[in-house]
Amino acid sequence: MTLQQEIFEQIKKHQRIIIHRHQRPDPDAIGSQIGLAEIIHASFPMKTVLAVGKQISGLSWIGNMDVADDDDYDDALVIVTDTANPPRVDDNRYTNGQELIKIDHHPNDDPYGDLIWVLPNASSSSEMVFDFYHQFKKELKLTPKAAEALYAGILGDTGRFLYPATTPHTLRVAASLMATGFDVTAVNQKLDSIALPVARLSAYVYENLEITDAGAATVCLTAEVLDKFDLKDAGTAGVVPLPGKIDSVVCWAIFVIQRDGTYRVRLRSKGPTINELAKKHDGGGHALASGAKAKDLDEIKAIKNELAEIATAYQKKNKKE
Question: Would the pTM of this model clear 0.85, i.e. be above it?
């Protein structure tokens, strides 16, 4: 029996299924969570299927979160999508079920769960959920709502098919999802649009970006900056890809102040591997997209220096080749 077959058997076995994802969710976290919930509910309408976590207003169009009572976890199957390590799971009751399954496309540096299905080469967890559906499509149903959620997740994690994780298979999956008939143009527009405060913050980012000769770019978003544009941490997601649009930039970090005075570090790259840097600073992720933490300005300075060294080494290597 394959791992996917074991997961499917657990889904068929349990009457109550609760699906979690990571904190501060992006479209793939919610897309894979809602997409899987919709597929299971449509296929087994007599089962109770709950998607739990903090409701994110900016992504509520993908799907709304359910309310789960503590008793709901008794004898339940819990599935966590798109979450690499336990501390990032939204709602720590995820361990209270009878069985726990991890479905994720991040490097499996922190395994958890009774069944672990991890594919680091997949473009997204949403792509994995579609592949799961397709493997058992004789028994599972893909509704337009599920397809819309999965498409949004794939679109988000591939940067609208710009990132290296986009494969021919990814595009075939996207085409299959589009064929269900949801409003593709509306989804594309929702993921592409930004609020006016974010647009103004974008101008600030470009104006204040520090770029080394080797192409390492950094910018720090302090409390004063966020207050100026009337934004909180969640509102800064729209500016994360911006440095990568500059042709001379090969990797970048955006530092965002948190309520406790520490900084969230969003690391991205167009070539150099940056997840080892993230691991050194209480983080992790993909080779080209990771997250970390900085406790103060001294650690920010250290990360800037390390990122600059990574960019320099990358440029030297490319010149030799």
Answer: yes
